[in-house]
Structures are given as structure tokens and as C-alpha cells.
Design brief:
By secondary structure, the chain is of the alpha/beta class. It contains 12 helices and 9 strands. The protein has a 7-stranded mixed beta sheet with strand order 4-3-2-5-6-9-7, sandwiched between helices. Strands 1-8 form a two-stranded antiparallel sheet. The N terminus is likely disordered.
Length: 260
């Protein structure tokens, strides 16, 4: 990838072969035949994916990297997508196929990549990737923690999350100023919600926007009925609620009715 593109994306390129192999090995390869690597750069992770019994595809927006991959990974060339992952429709490339997502994600778009995965969860059974460590920890964290938040709840509503290992700055070019963390998401057997999904997202985001307040205060903008606000759950703070409790809360609000 060119210096210009590196700076634009905030991407740091992995140069440690053992860590690249470990990331590739984090995929279970269960329930799918296709893998899409986001931002392969010069292919340090790609070469290990190509050794596996799956069909590897890569998506890259920088023409320098695309040219390098085309020249050095001849068998991969037909499966190089020169597009922005955040702007594509996965169905255009994979039809109805299940596809796993993997990558060393640019820090500044990593959460957007995660949210796009959640939006496409019906076709993404597994996701493995490297984030800034504190973001990876937040995604994997459970209730009761100060770092448990929106990313934690929304991801864990649909996927089981495992924090796999920490990666130091020294194995990147250029080295970032922080540690990185690799996580794996495995889609839950039941990845649909028993409540309105848009309302669930709204309740979670609204609750954590004022996380120091009790839910009675942070969800005030939803104009809940006085009767519902007397429910014991509303004296809790958002970080005290498990994913299932947020689903239960959304069901109560759904039954109560939103008064916008």
C-alpha cells in the first residue's frame, strides 16, 4: 500500500510471520467455503489463508497493493476485489454463500467494519481480526465492567466473542503507539432477536450515551410511561445489564410503546 493510502486509512502493516499465521489459524473453517480478507496489503496474512481448504478472496482499495498481489499471487488474481468493503454489497460477490471475514483492520474504520458485519450476519458465520487492543477488549467484555458498552452488547447479541491474543506494536510497519488485540466472532445458532432490532439498537445506544445515569434518566428521551419507569430495571445503569437483560428491557419498552 502506498504511503498516501497508509496515512489515509491509518493502517499498520504486520511484518511478523508467526503472528500472521496465528491470525489465519484463528478461523475454524466450519460452516463456510469462502473467506474474505479485508485490506491484505502485501499479502503477509493472505499467503497463510491460501494454504487452507477454503476459497480466499481479498478486498483492497489501494492500487499499489492490488498490483503487487496480482503479480505475486497469480492464482488469487481473479478473486481480488478492488473496492471499499464498507461500500460493497456482499451478495454481489458471494450470492447466497456464507463467507468468513478476516483481516488486520485499519484502526480508524475497524468499528465500521464490525457494524457492517453485524448488518450482514445472515451471511457471515465467522469473523476474525485485529483491532486496537482497547477496542478488541471492549467488544469482548461482559457486563459489570467500565469498558462494557455499545460495541459489547450489539456484537454479543448475535455472536459469541473470544479475545484470542495481544499483539505488540513492534511487529508492525509503521509501529502504532498502542497494542493490538485479535478477536474471533462465532455467529450464534439463533442470531435473530425476539424484539424489534432497530428499537434494540436504539435502546442500547441511548442507554450508554449517558452511561453514568440510571436507565430511568438515560432513556428519558424515549418518553416511557410512568408505570414502566417504576420497573426495577430502570434504577440500574447500562453497564449492569447483560445482553439478555437489554433484550428484556427492549421487550418491555416495545410493549409499552414509544412516544416520540
Amino acid at each position: 500500500m502506498s504511503v498516501r493510502a497508509k496515512k489515509h486509512l491509518g493502517q499498520h502493516f504486520l511484518k511478523d510471520e508467526e503472528i500472521a499465521k496465528n491470525i489465519a489459524d484463528s478461523l475454524t473453517l466450519k460452516g463456510y467455503n469462502d473467506v474474505l480478507e479485508i485490506g491484505p496489503g502485501m499479502g503477509v496474512l493472505t499467503k497463510y489463508l491460501l494454504k487452507k481448504d477454503v476459497v480466499t478472496h481479498v478486498i483492497e482499495i489501494d492500487w499499489d497493493s492490488v498490483a503487487y498481489l496480482q503479480a505475486n499471487f497469480l492464482h488469487l488474481a481473479p478473486r481480488i476485489i478492488e473496492k471499499d468493503f464498507l461500500k460493497i454489497n456482499l451478495k454481489d460477490y458471494f450470492k447466497e454463500n456464507q463467507v468468513a471475514i478476516i483481516g488486520n483492520f485499519p484502526y480508524n474504520i475497524s468499528t465500521q467494519i464490525l457494524f457492517k458485519t453485524l448488518e450482514n450476519r445472515e451471511r457471515i458465520p465467522e469473523f476474525a481480526g485485529m483491532f486496537q487492543k482497547e477496542v478488541a477488549q471492549r467488544i469482548a467484555e461482559k457486563e459489570g465492567s467500565k469498558i462494557y458498552g455499545i460495541l459489547s452488547v450489539l456484537t454479543q447479541a448475535f455472536y459469541d466473542v473470544e479475545y484470542l491474543f495481544t499483539v505488540p506494536p513492534t511487529v508492525f510497519d509503521p509501529p502504532p503507539k498502542v497494542d493490538s488485540g485479535v478477536i474471533r466472532l462465532t455467529r450464534k445458532e439463533n442470531y435473530t432477536l425476539p424484539v424489534d432490532e432497530k428499537l434494540f439498537f436504539r435502546v442500547v445506544k441511548t442507554g450508554f450515551n449517558q452511561r453514568r445515569k440510571m436507565l430511568r434518566g438515560s432513556l428519558k428521551s424515549l418518553n416511557l410511561s410512568d408505570k414502566l419507569r417504576e420497573d426495577p430495571i430502570f434504577v440500574m445503569r447500562p453497564e449492569q445489564l447483560s445482553v439478555s437483560s437489554f433484550i428484556e428491557l427492549t421487550a418491555k419498552i416495545e410493549q409499552d410503546g414509544i412516544r416520540d
